[in-house]
């Protein structure tokens, strides 16, 4: 299956195997440096990322627009706050 249906993104970040605490802190700072409406593609290989990233987005108001856990990719749109 190709990646033709994945969202476009403005910033690409390979978080590697960062665990939840470090992952979300660094993600927060990266998103703050972006403009509202921009999208970051995060590659996160930590097994907990599958649940941690969507939960963090719900708690912070950022929008998880797509997730491809099998490929370790998550597409997050920066909120307008």
Describe this structure in words.
Strand 1, helix 1 (20-32) and strand 2 form a beta-alpha-beta unit. The model has no long low-confidence stretch (mean pLDDT 91). The protein is 31% helix and 28% strand. The longest helix has 13 residues, at 20-32. The N and C termini lie far apart (36 Å). The protein contains 2 helices and 4 strands. It has a 4-stranded mixed β-sheet with strand order 1-2-4-3, covered by helices on one side. By secondary structure, it is of the alpha+beta class. It has a single domain, classed as TusA-like domain (Translation Initiation Factor IF3, 2-Layer Sandwich), CATH 3.30.110.40.
Write the layout of secondary structure elements.
Blueprint: E1 11-16, H1 20-32, E2 39-44, H2 49-60, E3 63-68, E4 73-77
Parallel strand pairs: 1-2
Antiparallel strand pairs: 2-4, 3-4
Keywords:
single chain, about 80 residues, alpha+beta, Translation Initiation Factor IF3, four-stranded mixed sheet, 2 helices, globular
**From the alpha-carbon coordinates, what is the Rg to the nearest angstrom?**
12 Å
Name of the CATH homologous superfamily: TusA-like domain
Proportion of strand residues: 25-35%
CATH architecture classification: 2-Layer Sandwich
Largest sheet: 4 strands, mixed
CATH class descriptor? Alpha Beta
Low-confidence segments, ≥5 residues, pLDDT <50? none
Supply the number of helical segments: 2
Query: Helices and strands, in N-to-C order?
Result: EHEHEE
Mean pLDDT: 91
Residue share in helix: 25-40%
Multimeric state: single chain
Give the strand tally: 4
Strand order of the largest sheet: 1-2-4-3
| CATH topological fold name | Translation Initiation Factor IF3
Q: Number of domains in the coordinates?
A: 1
Straight-line distance between termini: 36 Å
What would you call the structural class?
alpha+beta
Shape annotation: globular
